[in-house]
Design a protein that fits this description.
By secondary structure, the chain is an alpha+beta fold. Helices cover 41% and strands 20% of the residues. A hairpin with a 5-residue loop joins strand 4 and strand 5.
């Protein structure tokens, strides 16, 4: 999908930076200036810097329940275990107690991910050495089975908020790059699959507009069905990827961001847009349009594809039942300033206030 791998890998960092905004703080800016030959080195560098910062703050610890045979009482006595010791003539009390420990799931996921990176042949020695040094502080932390991690069950609170970004990157690495070998061992695949890249692409575009275009309301909003009788039983939820709104002018742009290996579908030698994508964005637009009833408004839709090396690249605008549906590509192989300009131009084309902002940026 890429013509210049080094530019694309560098842009993965920028996409991560917007998707997980705290990456843009402090020394992580150094990551963007480094040259990376492969994406594994990039992930290793980001994790190394993030874990290093976390070690300065201290590893997150939480109370874990322990049961142990002890010579003196600690916590509360477990009677069945103590009786068993008495029968065996052991002068020990079986005690249950809570212990503040760093051997919790958050640190276990960090260690598991780092060990996968360390074992990977394509990661340069300098990054492996940094990670190995940091793992000395994880000597009391266990590794976990990568495929057993229930990401949706992880809860963050005030004491472990700093782990949110690190674990998001761990999830991207483990879910998107993990393969099982014939002998049951785990290794990292050569690249993140399209599904995970699609999620990252969506989140990047959304967070870019949230940060760089505060004059608009950017969100991933649900769209209610325009029902004649109000009965919506069993109807699926319409969840947009990106919705840009200007309340002053009642102008809305709904963007569906897509990251595919092949942008077009081909049948009998004829290339067309993915029909399901087009049906979906049209449905979103028409149902959102119905919310405004008689008020002056503009609702448009856009399919935004990550550009591929295919000969045919979509760049079309269609007028459908009173609404504009456009199809456009975003070239991720350009310098990031050019990627940002492409996104800014999309906003400027659809919103007057964004047009004024973009014009001032170039004056």
């Amino acid at each position: 999908m890429t013509k210049d791998k080094s530019i694309f890998i560098k842009n993965i960092y920028y996409m991560l930076s917007y998707a997980f905004t705290t990456l843009q703080q402090s020394d992580d800016e150094k990551v963007a200036k480094e040259e990376f030959e492969n994406i594994h080195n990039l992930f290793a560098a980001i994790l190394s810097k993030g874990i290093g910062r976390q070690l300065k703050q201290g590893l997150y610890r939480e109370y874990l329940n322990r049961k142990e045979d002890l010579p003196v009482m600690r916590g509360k006595i477990d009677m069945p275990g103590t009786i068993k010791n008495q029968i065996a003539r052991k002068q020990r009390l079986t005690c249950e107690y809570d212990e503040l420990s760093e051997n919790n799931l958050l640190n276990q996921i960090l260690k598991t991910t780092v060990m996968l990176l360390i074992r990977h042949a394509e990661i340069d020695t300098e990054y492996k050495d940094e990670l190995k040094k940091e793992m000395l502080y994880f000597s009391n932390v266990d590794e976990v089975e990568p495929t057993s991690i229930r990401w949706t069950s992880i809860r963050f609170q005030r004491n472990n908020q700093t782990y949110r970004v690190l674990l998001s990157i761990c999830q991207l690495i483990i879910e998107g790059m993990l393969l099982t070998t014939d002998d049951g061992e785990y290794k990292l695949a050569s690249f993140v699959d399209d599904q995970r890249m699609n999620r990252l692409f969506e989140k990047f575009v959304l967070e870019y507009y949230i940060k760089e275009h505060p004059e608009l309301k950017a969100s991933a909003s649900q769209i209610p069905w325009a029902l004649d009788d109000g009965v919506g039983t069993l109807l699926p939820i319409m969840q947009s990827d990106i919705m840009l709104e200007d309340a002053e002018s009642n102008t809305v742009l709904i963007i569906d961001a897509k990251y595919y290996t092949h942008t077009m579908q081909t049948q009998y030698g004829i290339s067309t847009l993915h029909s399901n994508n087009l049906y979906q964005i049209f449905t979103y637009v028409k149902n959102k349009d119905a919310e405004f009833e008689n008020a002056d408004h503009t609702v448009s839709g856009m399919l935004l594809y990550a550009k591929t090396d295919e000969e045919i690249q979509p760049d079309n605008k269609y007028q459908m039942s009173g609404n504009q549906i456009s199809v456009q590509t975003l070239d991720l192989n350009l310098e990031f300033s050019e990627i940002a300009k492409q996104l800014d131009d999309i906003a400027a084309e659809h919103f007057d206030r964004s047009k004024d902002k973009v014009r001032k940026q170039h004056e």
